Each structure stands twice: as structure tokens, then as C-alpha cells.
Amino acid sequence: MKVGVVMSEKLVSENLVSENSAGSTQMIFVIHGMDCIACAKGIKNYLHRKLNEYIDFVDIDFQSGKMFVKIKKYIDPKIIINEVKNIGYGAELEKNVDNYSRNEKKEYINVFLAITFASFIFVVSMFFHDLLVNNKFVKTIVFILSTFVQFINGYKFYRNAFYSLRNGILNMDLLIVISTTTAYFYSLYAYFNGLHHLYFETSAVIIAVVLLGKFIEEKYRRSGFGSVLNLLTLKPRKVNVYRNELVTIDVEDIKRGDVIEIHKGQSVLVDGIIIEGEGIFDLSLLFGENQPVLLKTGNEVLAGSFLIDGLVKIKANEDYKSSFWKGIESSVFSLSTKTSNYQLFIDKISGNFVVIVIILALLSFIYWYFIGNKLFALNALISTLIIACPCAIGLASPLAINKGMIESSKKQIIVKDPYVFEKISKSKNFVFDKTGTITNKNVVVNDFKVLYSNFINNENFNEILEKVLVSVSKSNHPLSVAIKDYIVNNFKISLYKSLKKNVVSSFRELTSLGIKVEFDDKTTVIVGNYSLIQDNIGQSLTSLQDGIFKDNSQNFDNFIALFKNEQIIIVIGVEYFEEMNKNVEKIVELLKSKGKNVIILTGANENSAMKLAKKIKVNEIIHSVDAVNKVKVIEDIKKKGLTVFVGDGINDSLVMNAADVGISFEYGSDITQNSASVILKDFSQIEDLVNVSYTVFRKLKFNLFWVFGYNVVLIPVAMGVFYNLGVTVNPMLAALAMVLSDFSLLFFNLSSFKLLGSK
After folding, report:
1. What is the pTM for the complete model shown?
2. What average pLDDT does range 581-596 have in this prediction?
3. Residue 731: pLDDT over 70
4. Alpha helix ranges (H) inside 324-389
């Protein structure tokens, strides 16, 4: 096979294929025809085996149907598309979702026709059997409709079964083909030989029901396009570097010691030191805390920071290959397709089941044939193949899951991964982000304490509070707003009167540090952290600094200092806390009652984390962890069992995919929502999600118990084990039993969802 070595300019211009400095290429495809995780794994393994010389990395996001390919040696995308088609699936370069919309409409029509025709066949066969037997026209109509359902509506099962066999995989499609084809051709034989026993309804109903189940699952699975792969779009590809002159290079070529120019709106690519300029940086991708930070010459700046405003030059402390972005890239490439262990168990059982059923049917035929009962030998062969219910094994999981998705949608919970119910119910760990998840970002003053004072009476204290109130009223920062509300509500100081009495001559807001306000009467108020106060109260107050600030710097988040001509009048310590979201304690207790290990994982500092620990009784709080290291922490936690992560920030997207289940919120970032398996409207819905998950999993186990119990009891009867006792089953009753097993399964699942209880 000849492989092209020149990249299509059209593909590059459309951003469907991107080339980096090393010559490797990234491509995104949309895959059609996948019905299960096994399909995704099969495609992945096949491409690695077939195109190993060219492909460096392949991952398939089963939720969105997208395949991400990173190649080490350029290959024409058409070759990859053709290889995917060779194993029975469709593939195309990602352009838009219109193609999927068209495919969805076709599938809807296919399912609608299958359900309509199968319903007609079933009603005629079950309730008007005499008419079917005696009326040639009705019999012919049933034959034609059954044939249409079997080979037109059910074509995808035959196609997938063929390719699965060719690749050595026994999947659910193969089981469906065997059971329905056996019933159909037995009925075909009866039809052309004038026999009264026709079982076209068996094959038609099975195909219609399975198609409907797969359609519903596919619709919900496709409800959210996007994956963690989208995070890579945030990584810049080029950078300006001073090498004798200003040149533009690829980010992968950054070396330690390079001087890099960062403009407003650009990301920092490697850790470094600012050697020129200053700027306001957003660190939310690193730590999740959304407070901008002002960094100046001499300050260290971390890779992953985003320059909101300013222009800086930084000296790189590391090569790109050691940077934060390279860490993100490695984390993305190491995240494998999410798989349901329970579904893989069912697939394994199903694959063995079909072999066992065929062997048992042949053994029963051989036994009865050679002892001379040739008529019953054929009866036993057909009855065993028909009465076995392989399709019900395949329906056990989708029926329970689809019902769970319907119930979730009623509660306005978006479930994108159909296996989250199983994973949540079996999970050992529930990990929560802090800011925006456990807390709602509303800041409240917890303690307002005078640490030092040098005024005469309460009247002077009120005047001081008025100046503080005016100072913080000039800022919209959440901490300033919290102080303003505290003074107004607790000291009954009027903001309107305070503004009239106190004239501000100068106001400065120092991002991430605090505020400095000067008044006409030469009074200065500073509200901010320990460093800001220390830098502004003068060198003559060293002993006061050590006595007040040093001893209390760990106890209070901010300080308020009012002074005149370096004379301190008052120092106030302020401690804040972030308001917890409603029902946090209730949700934590619910999870702990179900044996979950509840953990808070945050980029916040130790002081903030410990405050939260006093208010909420979780099993563990892990603090001061950045985005890349959060993935490593999650991987360690996963070693102790299935892990669910709940978060909302852009820095949580990688962790969402590293966890077994990722949960985000409608108000979360777009990338986090794309990465999540579940999207909730608010925190309180975690209780609904957990309850639905446990109900779905109980229903799934009940379904499997029912299906296997049915087969264990009736297969021996069909084989003739109890023949000498007069207990046998003919193909008609076998077909009826199989249909009833499917419909009983449907009844148990489509009846009230509270059949098994939801606690």
C-alpha cells in the first residue's frame, strides 16, 4: 500500500489535520456504527496492529463517537478511513455534525418500521393464529414483513456479526443473528411446506426491540459532543523567542534559558522568571481559584498561567518537554477509553453462551437421532436454539440503563456515559473539587477582630469603621464586598453618610494583594494580605509588625490597617469563609452511609482547606494540588477502587477523564462539561443521581438473574432431559417462551421505576 507523504493543504487549512514541528500529525475522525465499548476497542486495536508503522496514538471517545489519531509518520487520512471501513464501521474526518443528524434520521425510520411491522406480525400471530394459518394472503403478508424486518431492518446485525467473526470477536450482534435467523428459517421451512407452526413473530420482535434499545442508548450517548481532547486546543503552537533577534518557533523547541515574549491573551508555556514588564495573570487552569494575580519583574510565573493584561518577557526555567503543557499532553494520551467492567463481563458471558447453546443443541440432536427418535431430535435441536434467550442477555443491561437515563432526564440530569449508573453504585471514592463545587464562591466574614488599637473611645472607632467602609465600597472584589456587608450589618454604619463625611483623594486596587485608599484628612486605609500591609506601614514599625502580623498571619486571611504619618491607629484581622452549597452536608452523609470514601481535592492552600474541614466531615482533604498533579492524585485514589470526581472549573477537565466517572454542572466551563460523564443543574442533584444509579444497578442485577434463571430452567426441558417424564417443549412453545422472556423483561423494566425501590 502506497502512502502519501505530502499533507493536503486543504485539510490543514480546515484544522482537520495539524502538523507540529516534529512532523507528527493529529487527526480527528467521526466513527459511525459503534454499538458498544467492545466496538471501540476493536477499532483501536485493529488500527494499532495494521498501521503501527504510522500511528503513534489512537483513542476513541465512545460517548461522542470521535476518534483521535496522532501519527508519527504522515499517512493519508483516506487510508485510515478505509481501514476502519474494512472492519465494518464508517469513518470520516470531523467537519460538522450534520452527517450524524442524517444518520440519526435514517436510524429513526429504520426503528419505526421495525417496531410497526413487528407489532403487526406479533398481533396476528398471537391473537389471530387461525387466520394466519388458513388465510394465504395474511400468511404471505406476514412472511413479506418478517423478511423485511429480518434482513432490511436487521441488516446491521448481520454486518456487525460478520465482521466480529472475521476479527475473532463473539459480540451481542452475533447472538442476535443466531437466535433470530434460527427462528426465521424454521418459520420459512414451515411456510413453504404448509405447516401450521410459524414463528416469524419471534425473530421480528427480537430485532425490533433490540433496535429500539440501541437507538435510545445511542441518542443519549451522543447527547454531548466533545472530550478531553478539546483541552489540547488551548495549547499554543507557536511562541516568540529572543535568539539574537525576535523569532517565532514551535513550542516544542523551547529550551531552558530562552527569553520568551508573552502578550495579552497568551498562555505561559514553561515555568520561568519575569525579567521585564508586569502583568495580571489568571491561574484558574492550574489551581481552580479564579482570583487574578499581579506579577512583576523578578516574580516566578508558572506554565499554564494566562496573561489577562500586560506584556512580559520571561526566562524559561525548563525545556518544553518538562513543562505543564507537556504534562497535560501526556495525561491526555494516557487516558484510555472508559469501559464498563460489568458490560465486558456480560459480553464475555454472552460470547461463551452462544457457543454453549450451539453445542448443547447439537448434542441433544445427536443423542435423540442415534437412539432412533429422529423426529424429536429435530424438535430438540430447533427448540434448544429458539428457547435459549441470548438476546435477553444483551437487553438486560441496555433496558436498565435506558430506563435510568429516562428517569435522569426527567430530573434534568444529563447522562452522557451509559455506564455511569453501574460505576457510581460500585464506586469506592467520591472526590470533590472545592471552589464552585463544595463552596459557591460567595465570601462571608467569619471573624473581625481588633489586634491593635490606639484610639480614645467608641466614637473614634465608628469614624474608623466609616473610613474602612468607604474604602472597601470602592472595590468589587468579593473580599471587599464581604467586609462592606459585615460592617453595615453588624455595626449599623451607613454607607451613604460615610461617603458624605469622608472624601477619598486616592484609590488604588492592587490585584491579588488588596487596596490602598487615601483621604483628604491625610488618613490612609490599607486592606489586604500580610505582604501588602508590611510593605506600606513603614520601616520604623518592625517590632509592631513582628508582634501583630507575624503572630497572626496564619490565623487571618486579610488585615485592615489605618494610619497617619506612619502612626498606626488600628489593625484589624479579618477571617473569611466561602459559603458552602446547599445540601453539602446531607450529600456527604448520604455517600458515607453507602460506604463511599468522601475526599476534597483542591488547589486552595492549607489554611483554606482546614477551615472547610472544620465545617464538613469528609474522610480526607488534599490541598495545594495543581491540574496535572490532580490527575496523578486521582490515579492513586483509583488504586483503592472505582472513583467519581465532581468539579466545575476548567482545571478539572483532565481529572474528569482520569476518574471513572466525571460529574460537572451547567454553570461549569465548556471544556469541563465536555469531559464530564454527567452534567447536573446544581449540587443537590447528586442525591438524585446516586439514588437512580443504585436503582438501575439493582434492576440490572435482577434482569440478569431473571434471564439466566429462565435459561437454566428451560434449556434442559428443550433438550429433552425430562422427556421420559412427559415434559417436553415444541418449537412453537419454545418461541413463545423466548418472546415471553423478552416481554417479561420489558415489563419489569418499563413498569414503574420504583418496582425495586429507590432509596
Report:
1. 0.56
2. 90
3. no
4. 324-334, 341-370, 374-387
